[in-house]
Design a protein that fits this description.
This protein is of the alpha/beta class and 314 residues long. It folds into 2 domains: 190 residues, Rossmann fold, CATH 3.40.50.720; 94 residues, Alpha-Beta Complex (UDP-galactose 4-epimerase, domain 1), CATH 3.90.25. 42% of the residues lie in helices and 16% in strands. It is built from 10 helices and 13 strands. The strands form 4 sheets. It has a 7-stranded parallel sheet with strand order 3-2-1-4-5-6-11, with helices on both faces. Helix 5 links the parallel strand 5 and strand 6. Helix 2 packs parallel to helix 4 and helix 6 crosses helix 10. The structure holds guanosine-5'-diphosphate. Guanosine-5'-diphosphate (GDP) binds next to helix 3 and helix 6. This is GDP-mannose 4,6-dehydratase. Keywords: Lyase. It holds the Pfam family GDP_Man_Dehyd.
Length: 314
């Protein structure tokens, strides 16, 4: 039975990935931060270590000798990276080096996939693909760019290492610090009379938003390719935050969203890439990957889940 090791196993992607791997019969081990109270998918063997503890990470890779290593852990919010740039580099950039070195030294058969991000492209014109210059404009993007270059450096030395350059991907498991879930939770609460308004930032900001389980499938496929490589993973469709608001309130049964949405400068970003849209043709050709859930269905699923959560709790 193959063995997979997932860093960030309690996050949105880690949860979906663990489920998919367990369903295939893979033995799944996951890294969680010490003292974490987050829910781990049943069936996952848990290892506690701080992601910044490179010695602990390397010891785990040397002991487990995983067939597949999915590196998902790290500070995952662009907004938060402006609050704590040093922590972002320590948690999102440096651990990639520790894991790659461990694979090279102690577990050469391990195939690693690194969850990279569209943020490495900064404000490059849309659409972006694997040839787009790396030019991040946030501490998060810069930390992810470091990871990306480490992966390609170790790949040159013969390590089976790939980056999945993931565009925004959402689901009912997305934390509320991300705008999509913030909106769907608020729309559901407003629909049920639990609050009146939601305060948001830039409604004109746009993103390429996809369905998280599709992105996890792309990572599984990348790890299993005979040759490693980097792939842009996204839908190619841009929608604004306003589009998301309109769709979410409609899905919650509220036609007129405007009285319920307030904007506040504190939620605006210093620099906000406006044109992140993926050209995922390489993933389509090499991985046979394509998104399965379109934007309206994605929004509806998230809203339905948040409405159900409220209705079950009363
Ligand atoms: P990320 O920045 O792409 O990692 O994802 P977010 O979901 O945090 O933000 C997506 C976009 O929504 C960004 O362009 C934000 O500027 C915009 N946005 C507008 N209002 C909000 C808000 O209230 N919270 C967050 N997190 N983002 C907002």
């Amino acid at each position: 039975m193959p063995l997979a090791f997932i860093t960030g196993v309690t996050g949105q992607d880690g949860t979906y990935l663990a489920r998919a791997l367990l369903a295939e019969g893979v033995e799944v081990h996951g890294l969680v931060r010490p003292g974490s109270v987050a829910i781990v998918e049943p069936g996952v063997t848990v290892h506690e270590a701080d992601i910044r503890d490179s010695g602990a990470l390397q010891g785990l890779v040397a002991d487990l000798k995983p067939d597949e290593l999915y590196h998902l852990a790290g500070q995952s919010s662009v907004g938060a990276s402006w609050e704590d740039p040093v922590g972002t580099v320590e948690q999102t950039g440096a651990p990639v080096a520790a894991l790659l070195q461990a694979v090279e030294r102690h577990s050469r058969q391990t195939r690693l996939v690194n969850a990279s991000s569209a943020e490495i492209f900064g404000v490059a014109p849309a659409p972006q693909n694997e040839s787009t210059p790396i030019a991040p404009v946030s501490p998060y993007g810069a930390a992810k760019a470091l990871g990306y270059f480490l992966v390609s450096s170790f790949r040159e030395r013969g390590v089976h290492a790939s980056s999945a350059i993931l565009y925004n991907h959402e689901s009912p498991l997305r934390p509320e610090r991300f705008v999509t879930r913030k909106i769907t939770v608020a729309a559901a609460r407003i629909a049920r009379g639990l609050q009146e308004t939601v305060t948001l930032g830039n409604l004109d900001a746009s993103r390429d938003w996809g369905w998280a389980p599709d992105y996890v499938d792309a990572m599984r496929s990348a790890v299993r390719q005979p040759t490693p490589g980097d792939h842009v993973i996204g839908t190619g469709e841009l929608h604004t935050v306003r589009d998301f608001v309109v769709a979410a309130f409609a899905a919650a049964g509220i036609d007129d969203w405007q009285p319920h949405v307030v904007t506040d400068d504190t939620f605006f970003r210093p620099v906000d890439p406006a044109t992140q849209a993926a050209d995922a043709s390489r993933a389509r050709d090499r991985l046979g990957w394509a998104p399965t859930i379109a934007f309206p269905e994605l929004v509806e699923r998230m809203v339905r889940s948040d409405l159900a959560r409220i209705d079950e709790s009363v």
